């Protein structure tokens, strides 16, 4: 268990003090993939760097596995850091060392004898899928392969926690997906707790159990991923959730549909989990004397379930449409009548 209590980080600059992280309280359970999302400048990097004391909090406590990090001596902190691996947006590899030597490096630092290091490095190379690349230099690798080296290096000393600082932000979407899949498989195989920061809701949707939304140094909302997707409370959270449910072009299409639909109602339905698999539209057409026009639909997978949105146009007599709307609401499917964009 990781507990942050009243964590604050204030930077003093020549223009005054900056409250980068402001009284943050968080609890992260063992084995969880916990995502922190926020726009640039929200304080995410500063927050994650306080989890291994790369940045020391101005106030507050970081407790990992019962140890309060700021109270540890230098030697104890070095030992505690072996339990906390970290990967970075720009990989931070040693450019003059091969893949093998990069992964071996933390083992050397930890004083693991040479004969044991080789075996461990080969294990890690196979875990991250880099067989055959032992002798390559970072400059000879693709972005995704570099991040695989970063992950193997971070796991070398069997940490219990992996911190990911925008680990996929420099990668294209396909490579991002393959690295995210690797993080999930490591989380499941090794029971590792993964804490990541990102500005992309896609990353949260794909691999996180829990999400916290950060704005101006504070956590403004948090909870299990599906709960937050289903009932976002803060405007900031709603904006992030829109990244998943409404592609950019939807806004334009919505305006057009509304123009062409003086009659009836345009509604957005949101389905979560098993709801996404039920034949609601068929039921609507059977039960009510209305026409149902499907305008756009999308189902996205989350780590543990699925999440879908469907835009439909209901046409018919007003009372009949009203009854259909009531029926949908009773069926525990979220429904929003769209009146303007
Ligand atoms: N060493 C520092 N000295 C002074 N101010 C800093 C320092 N590090 C960060 N800040 C300020 O703290 C605030 C939060 O920065 P931080 O990098 O943690 O945000 P972020 O959400 O990670 O954004 P980004 O993704 O752009 O890095 C910003 O206003 C930033 O300018």
UniProtKB/TrEMBL annotation:
Domain ABC transporter: 2-241
Pfam families, per the entry: ABC_tran, NIL
A GO term for molecular function: ATP binding
Keywords: Amino-acid transport, ATP-binding, Cell membrane, Membrane, Nucleotide-binding, Translocase, Transport
GO BP terms: amino acid transport
Origin superkingdom: Bacteria
InterPro entries registered for this protein in UniProt: AAA+_ATPase, ABC_transporter-like_ATP-bd, ABC_transporter-like_CS, ACT-like_dom_sf, MetN_ABC, MetN_ABC_transporter-like, NIL_domain, P-loop_NTPase
Protein name: Methionine ABC transporter ATP-binding protein
Natural source organism: Alkalihalobacillus trypoxylicola
Origin organism lineage: Bacteria, Bacillati, Bacillota, Bacilli, Bacillales
